[in-house]
Design brief:
single chain; mainly alpha; two-stranded antiparallel sheet; about 45% helix; 434 Repressor (Amino-terminal Domain); about 400 residues
């Protein structure tokens, strides 16, 4: 009987395999063992020999000690709702992969919170029905207005929605979701009390990404208390998606200002897009919701004739909003030598390229002794709710942060 590896955690193997988008059979082929052996390793029925563990780690591109790390009780986390754009069987593998990578992001956040004081979660708690079937269009419009007022915003264009959410306690990340219909997803975690928004980096459209984050904000505000089982029915799933999209339009294009700016001219809408960073398609949809256009179908036909249905002008010019807080926190810890550059990946037990992709760090950041640009720090003197530029993102160390 071959000796196993003491302390091996089978769930870590499953987590890594699913995070790589591999089946049991494909991993078995890569390592040179049977699919039954992989299944036994994952379920705890057997432990791989040290040489097999090395092959597993190499095939999955993980440090071997990742598979020896205990997994904390996740019962609370299992009860949290993920808001996906699609629950079709075609996106199942991509959803599982994204969910596992989301877990890696949670590991990074948990590690950083040992050193960094994260912004307090400051989201509006609105008195809305928990049953989405009881939420009206008028309540969604009011909720979008209430969210703006809660954060001290008037009805003009928001300079950066991503930074607005980050400065109010949300963790926002961008990485590839590898599915055309996913775009983004979100979860309000009961484990650490943080709202998370994961944006797809597969598509480079700034307007689409801006709509995505406003859409996920709609879920976090309108559907925070919705249990996961509620989304199992196609009718409810479709309803909450439509409600989140209605919220996104109302949040990005408030009626008071949009009704004055809207014109049924595609050229004028294109000029408006450059200012508000919202797609022409969303503006047409919003105008229809508000009764500002009589011939909506004609606008869609003209949009298609110009070839703008799939890709609009400015999509390859405007830069998508980039999350800053997690990336800058890591840079600051390393710049101040609170955590040596080569130690962080070891403590996280994650491959360096995965850390870089999840946090927005430049490729090769942990492999090169590159100069880290100094971050502009400032005192908390103004309202914590308002927007700040990326250079004004406040990063504060915890007391005794050098204790590891």
């Amino acid at each position: 009987m071959r000796p196993g590896t003491p302390g091996f955690v089978g769930l870590r193997l499953r987590e890594a395999r699913e995070g790589r988008g591999l089946t049991v059979v494909s991993l078995a082929d890569l390592v040179g063992v049977s699919k039954q052996a992989i299944s036994r390793y994952e379920t705890g029925g057997a432990s791989p020999a040290p040489d097999v563990l090395r092959k597993l780690a190499q095939a999955l591109n993980f440090p071997p000690h990742r598979f020896l790390m205990p997994i904390a009780d996740s019962e609370e986390e299992a009860a949290d709702t993920f808001f996906w754009r699609s629950l079709s069987s075609a996106t199942k593998i991509a959803r599982i992969r994204a969910q596992r990578r989301f877990g890696w992001m949670r590991d990074i956040v948990g590690y950083l919170k040992r050193f960094i004081e994260f912004p307090a979660v400051n989201f509006p708690a609105l008195d809305l029905p928990h049953d989405p079937q009881e939420i009206s269009a008028e309540q969604i419009e009011d909720a979008a207005t209430a969210a703006r007022r809660f954060w001290g915003l008037e009805d003009g264009a928001i300079s950066n929605v991503t930074w607005l959410l980050e400065n109010n306690g949300a963790v926002v990340a961008r990485h590839e979701l590898l599915a055309e219909t996913l775009d983004a997803f979100s979860q309000w975690s009961s484990k650490d009390g943080i709202p998370y928004v994961i944006l797809g980096a597969d598509k480079g459209s700034a307007a689409r990404s801006r709509c995505d984050i406003a859409h996920e904000l709609g879920h976090l505000i309108l559907h925070r208390h919705l249990p996961p089982k509620s989304l199992n029915t196609g009718e409810i799933f479709s309803l909450v998606e439509k409600q989140a999209q209605r919220f996104a339009g109302a949040f990005l294009l408030p009626e008071s200002t949009f009704s004055e700016l809207f014109s049924p001219s595609l050229d004028q809408l294109l000029a408006l897009k450059a200012k508000v960073k919202v797609s022409i398609g969303l503006m047409i949809k919003r105008a229809s919701e508000l009764g500002l256009v009589r011939h909506e179908r004609r606008l869609w036909i003209n949009l298609a004739r110009r070839g703008w249905r799939l890709k609009e002008p400015l999509d390859d010019v405007l830069e998508p909003e980039a999350p800053q807080f997690i990336k800058r926190s890591i840079e600051l810890l390393i710049e101040r030598n609170i955590v040596p550059r080569d130690e962080m990946p070891f403590h996280l037990a994650l491959p360096t390229n995965d850390i870089e992709k999840l946090t927005g760090l430049s490729s090769g950041y942990f492999d090169e002794c590159q100069q880290v640009l100094p971050l502009k720090m400032r005192q908390e003197t103004d309202s914590p709710h308002a927007e700040r530029s990326g250079e004004e993102t406040i990063i504060q160390f915890r007391k005794a942060s050098k204790a590891r």
